[in-house]
Write a structure and sequence with these properties.
Length: 70
């Protein structure tokens, strides 16, 4: 189960298919395709931070991520 405190890079490394799912969900996630952004910010940004920075509702984002790993 993905939680708000996990790092985005950790989640996408474990579940690589989620990157495309997020980009399909919103163009706000296109930065995930930028290796510089992913390798720097991704190691520090938690799911909670990602939700805040993209304007996503945290609970909706977590539900979306978790429903796509099962």
């Amino acid at each position: 189960m993905i939680t708000k405190d996990q790092k985005i890079a950790e989640v996408l490394t474990k579940y690589p298919h989620l990157k495309e799912k997020l980009i399909e969900r919103s163009p706000k996630f296109k930065n995930l395709n930028n290796p510089i952004v992913f390798n720097t910010v991704g190691k520090f940004a938690r799911i909670e931070d990602v939700a805040k920075n993209t304007g996503e509702d945290l609970d909706d984002l977590l539900a979306f991520l978790n429903s796509n790993i099962e």
